[in-house]
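Appendix B. Worked example

We walk through a single record from start to finish. Start with the input: the chain for DUF1223 domain-containing protein, Maribacter aquivivus, length 263.
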Amino acid sequence: MFDKKVIIILFLAVGFSLTSFIRSQPSKDNKVDDAFSFNTIENKENGVVVLELFTSQGCSSCPPADILLEKAKNEYPENVFALSYHVDYWDYIGWADPFSNKNFTVKQSKYNRKLGYRGNYTPELVVNGKEHLVGSNRAKVESAINKYAAKASPNRLMSQQLDRVADKVNFNYKIEGATKGKIIRAVLLLNERTTEVKRGENSHRTLKNSNIVVAEKYLELGDNSVVGSITIPKIVKKDEKLILMLLVENDNAGITGAVKAAI
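Next comes the structure step. The output line below is what the pipeline stores for this chain.
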């Protein structure tokens, strides 16, 4: 039989390791004013700005970042490519996020190792694969949008074919610019969904998520073109709108081009 002191020590050790792994970064007042809007982009280069938000419905600090991501998406429809990756490390705190995926947690960890940040946190926003910031910080998000929109993107993608057949989205895109050492990330996003959270830190709240990543895959580049398909997962309902994004990545996970289309 275990000694009671040993059991208590083991319990505290497990609790400490869990809380040290899961971190959240709250905004100043943990909300975003619905009337707020970004300023106009200060440049005319129209470079692509890819915003990858690592979030969770189980994190009380995440809803402001979710709102901010949607506003950036709506106010900069040409420049901003918004992606919402739902991580799984909050699922054990009372609410299992229906969109969470352990692969997205792995993706976040890879980004943070590359960017020199120890551990993961939510809401984390990675911009063009090159820097990270707290996703609910409006001033920093706006500054990052202006920064990368001011830089011409090395690659440009043009659709040759895009169609949906049963549970698959087929595509064929031509790519301009240097492609040596680069790959394509194909991402399928659910335009939006509202969820009634029944447990956890956001218990009894109704949350709206936008541009939710539901599937992704990496593809090799052909002769300045990419041809492929991506499967629509069963979590997507029949009448829900989808978005396809293709992102060009260099060998250091930096994003050099992007395109998006409603399905």
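Two observations about the output. The longest helix spans residues 4-21. The domain at 156-188+215-262 is CATH 2.60.40 (Immunoglobulin-like).
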